[in-house]
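Encode chain A's predicted structure.
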Amino acid sequence: MKLLVCISRTPETTAKISFTEDGKQFNSDGVQYIMNPYDEWYALVRAVEFKEQNGGEVTVIHVGESSSDIIIRKALSIGADKAVRVNANPSSSLFVAKQIANYASENPQDIIFFGKETIDYNGSEIGPMVTEMLDIPYISFASKLDKDGDAFLCERDIEGGVQALKVNAPFGISAAKGMAEQRIPNMKAIMMSKRKPLEVVEPVEVEAKVSIDQYELPAGKSGVKLIDPENMDELVQLLKDVEKVL
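Encoded structure for chain A:
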């Protein structure tokens, strides 16, 4: 069974976010990067568990430059068998999806795993794009995945309940909370990851469909306003003003 896990690099959650003077470029100075938690904790770990339970091979794929190799090696230490890095700056969701789809079309996979979203853009775009390009089914925000003979059983939370789905390979799936539990690699796994293959491939050309006009930070939060409990008229007026804004 061929299992492909798509991993991305995101700023560490405590990183201070800023942009260059023209507002068109993220300022990466001093920013520490990590593997996107949804990719690591849920998608990657579940793929590794699936391999351990059913056999097969886990490949991780990442679109990025050599500075991402440390993150890829961490994925290998968690249990992936090999890695592929598309040597390019991930300029857009479409660009990234095209690179992954191109690799998967040349190297057919049974299941393609995605984290449900990245913690920086929160777009949930890559999975649907890749599976559309490959013309295979896609299951989003899944919390459970099991094998049932030649088919696969999935569950995902929906409003008011849980939806159960049955699908045949090949397919793509995005992993949400509940899919797996975080694994912390031990020293032996970290050392062994350095021996595992990391293939670097050049990107395919993709026509840009969008461009960045400007980034801007959200407005800062206002402080707490304290009101004298004897002054109910002021409280009522403030509540009315909030209703107008909403």
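The two ends are 51 Å apart (CA to CA).
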